[in-house]
Amino acid sequence: MIDFSQIDKTIHEKGRLSIMTLLASRVEPWPFQDLKAELDMSDGNLITHLRTLEKAGFIAGEKFTGDGRPQTLYTLNKEGRKAFEQYLSILAQILDLGK
Questions:
Q1: How far apart are CA 99 and CA 80, in angstroms?
Q2: What is the SS3 string spanning the chain?
Q3: Rounded distance, CA 43 to CA 93, Å?
């Protein structure tokens, strides 16, 4: 039987699941502006979700300054990837049970 209590509530929220999915989709870091454009989120909404994921230890943000505007790049860290894979595994179990 599926242990539904193992569903990570931090990841399960739609905005955070979207962010985790994008970050897991490629090795290179995602600039804040690219995440914002891809997810069609406001700055405040995206920042709130990113902070929640950083606080959970799932992602890391690194600020870069240069000639242009400062930029923050986000990556999924090792703990975040493990949590995301576990989350997907539980979803796969749910899908299999529902067939």
A1: 29
A2: CCCHHHCCHHHHCHHHHHHHHHHHCCCCCEEHHHHHHHHCCCHHHHHHHHHHHHHCCCEEEEEECCCCCCEEEEEECHHHHHHHHHHHHHHHHHHHHCC
A3: 34
For the beta carbon of residue 27, count every other beta carbon within 10 angstroms.
Answer: 8
CB-based contacts of 6: which residues, under 8 Å, 6+ apart? 86, 90
What's the first-to-final CA gap in the chain, in angstroms? 15
**What percentage of residues in the chain have a pLDDT greater than 70?**
100
What pTM, to 2 d.p., does this model score? 0.91
**How confident is the model over 29-38, as a mean pLDDT?**
96
> Average pLDDT over the chain, rounded to whole?
94
Sheet holding 59-64, edge to edge: 30-31, 71-76, 59-64
